[in-house]
Amino acid sequence: MPRLLVRRPSPRLADGELTHLERVPVDAALAQRQWDGYVAAFRARGWDVTELAPADEHPDGVFVEDTVVVFDDLAVITRPGADSRRGETASARRAVEASGLPTAAIQAPGTLEGGDVLKIGRTAYVGLSSRTNEPGIAQLRALLAPRGWDVVTVPITTVLHLKTGVTALPDGTVIGYERLVDDPSVYERFVPVPEAEGSAVVVLDEHTVLMSASAPRTAELLQGRGLEVVAVAVTEFEKLEGCVTCLSVRVRG
Ligand code: CIR
Predict the structure, then answer these.
(1) Handedness of CA 200, 206, 207, 208 (dihedral sign)
(2) Which residues form ligand 1's pocket by a CB distance below 6 Å?
(3) What pLDDT does residue 253 have?
(4) In what order do the strands lie in the sheet containing 123-128?
(5) Atom of ligand 1 at shortest distance to CA of 163?
């Protein structure tokens, strides 16, 4: 059974890091309800949900994807590029270890955030961004090469993380909002979507993706490609430069 690691939102979510967006008011109660809806959408499809210990002192702690990336049965504990987020990894590591997955960790001076890692087949595209640096990518490459993974570095300038700009459909086609994608030709197959919030999908199974309810025209486009779309409201997290991918770590087994 696939497993989902999540962490409930901090009451301080509104104080989270912002890089490309202006700060706007965040409704903490609505954020909690949206998070409940996000988790429920996975539960309804048979995912087993593990909650990390709350980390209310970390406004961005809900964006748990940035702290752990899973490759086959190896969990790589990251070293976030944002100082304010470094303290989030200890509890993520404990949860991963409790679940029995072997771990490895990115070490200083390397930095890496999970939002910069897009896996397609056995290729990991890794954003070289304001959060993920060359030494972090080199360490990841050294961990993955013996396991048969290719690591492709993708310079990121227009958005926070690689996966803010692009994600992949179940068949490996990369989708993105073109204005926010530095170089779509990096990917074998790229399809532009009409809304910025439509660029992030989580693959639930071969025929189904989960995405933001803020992107109805993208949902139609994906349905037109024969996919079932599960739409969830995540507006309060989008205000903090988050999206559907960053709210969880998926362990697919
Ligand atoms: C940050 O700047 O770190 C948070 N406000 C948003 C992190 C979003 N993470 C992700 O897309 N993987």
Answers:
(1) negative
(2) 16-17, 19, 60, 63, 65-66, 82, 85, 114-115, 160-161, 163-164, 240-243, 246
(3) 74
(4) 117-120, 123-128, 150-155
(5) 11
Distance of CA 174 to the CA centre of its chain: 15
* Stated pTM of the model: 0.97
Q: What angle do CA 127, 133, 136 make, to 5 degrees?
A: 95
Question: Which amino acid is located at 109 in the chain?
Answer: P
End-to-end CA gap in the chain = 7
Mean pLDDT of the chain: 97
In the numeric block, which tokens belong to residue 57? 């002192």
CATH top-level class for 3-251? alpha beta
Give the residue from 235, 240, 205, 233 showing the smallest Cα distance to 219.
233
Question: Which residues, at least 6 apart from 73, have a Cβ–Cβ distance to it below 8 Å?
Answer: 101, 102
Residue nearest to atom 2 of ligand 1 (CA): 17
Q: Burial code of 94-114, b = ≥16 C-beta within 10 A, e = fewer?
A: ebbeeeebeeebbeeebbbbb
Nearest-atom index, ligand 1, CA of 241:
6
Kindly report the protein residue whose alpha carbon is nearest to atom 7 of ligand 1: 242
Angle at 180 between CA 87 and CA 208, to 5 degrees: 75
Express each pLDDT in 89-118 by its tens digit: 999 999 999 989 999 999 999 999 999 999
Positions marked catalytic: 161, 246
